[in-house]
Amino acid sequence: MENNTEINILTIDIGGSHIKATILNAEGVPISDYARMPTPQPSTPVNVINLIKELVKNFTGYDKISVGFPGFVKNGIIKTAPNLGSESWADYPLQTNLSALLSRPAKVVNDADLQGVGMVSGEGLEMMVTLGTGFGTALLLDGKLLPHFEIAHHPVKTDRDYDEYIGEAAYKRKGKDHWNYRMKKVFAILKTVFNYDRLYISGGNAKNLTIPLDDNMIIVNNREGIKGGARLWSKDNE
């Protein structure tokens, strides 16, 4: 592997509402302006790939590509994409296809994994959750990503999973007060089940939290998490 201090990384964040991109240096510092476009509807692989091509057409001087994707990703292959609303993503080789499209090595991981790599302190068991269109989660031990679990689709009640219980649709339907009541219950479950050292919280709805948080629960800025695009290529996460 070449000296990581000399590479620049195109980092793409695919979300349910927007797709964003920037170029980072090896330390995770943006060296280009952010580009941002609404996620296409329908959000099929072809439409998303075409939008990414348009989004990054003016980006130059990058050596590698990192992508955060809102679903379950295994070895760069998309297994689920519930918040893009399309079954056509099943077994889609996004990592291989993006690498071919942009002629650079690429890594595609779950979007919460990408945020987690960028945010955590690197000490102990740390958990990242994203409160956006759905509920994203990542676990890291001493800064290294652990196998991804789609906790969002585990039942939190008999008739609904976490995405349905605290996702964007639930927030809009139930309102801020009741959503915070639900978040209090979810945080209690996460604390009991995972016994994390620190819990990081990001996503568009993090700003709507009104409940008290423990000292080891930290609300972080989404844009800070983008530095995970650089850390994804560090030796610890190879």
Record the SSE blueprint.
Layout: E1 9-14, E2 18-24, E3 35-38, H1 45-55, E4 64-69, E5 73-74, E6 77-78, H2 94-102, E7 106-110, H3 111-119, E8 125-131, E9 135-141, E10 144-145, E11 155-157, E12 160-161, H4 162-166, H5 168-174, H6 176-194, E13 198-202, E14 217-219, H7 222-225, H8 228-231
Parallel strand pairs: 1-4, 4-7, 8-13, 13-14
Antiparallel strand pairs: 1-2, 2-3, 5-6, 8-9, 9-10, 11-12
Helix pairs in contact: 5-6
Report on this structure:
With 238 residues, the chain is an alpha/beta fold. It folds into two domains: 108 residues, ATPase, nucleotide binding domain (Nucleotidyltransferase, domain 5); 110 residues, 2-Layer Sandwich (Nucleotidyltransferase, domain 5). The chain is 29% helix and 26% strand. The chain has eight helices and 14 strands. α5 packs across α6. The longest helix is centred in the C-terminal third of the chain and has 19 residues. The radius of gyration is 17 Å and the shape is globular. The model has no long low-confidence stretch (mean pLDDT 92).
Concise synopsis of the structure shown:
Helix content is 29%, strand content 26%.
Q: Could you say what the CATH topology of the largest domain is called?
A: Nucleotidyltransferase, domain 5
C-alpha termini separation: 10 Å
What's the number of structural domains?
2
User: Globular, elongated, flat, extended or rod-shaped: what is the shape?
Assistant: globular
Q: What composes the largest sheet?
A: 5 strands, mixed
Instruction: Assess the beta-strand content as a share of residues.
Output: 25-35%
Number of helices: 8
> What would you say the CATH architecture of the largest domain is?
2-Layer Sandwich
Overall helicity: 25-40%
Q: Mean pLDDT, as a whole number?
A: 92
Count the E strands: 14
Radius of gyration equals 17 Å
**Spatial order of the strands forming the largest sheet:** 3-2-1-4-7
Low-confidence stretches: none
Q: Report the top-level CATH class of the largest domain.
A: Alpha Beta
Structural class: alpha/beta
H and E order: EEEHEEEHEHEEEEEHHHEEHH
CATH superfamily caption of the largest domain: ATPase, nucleotide binding domain
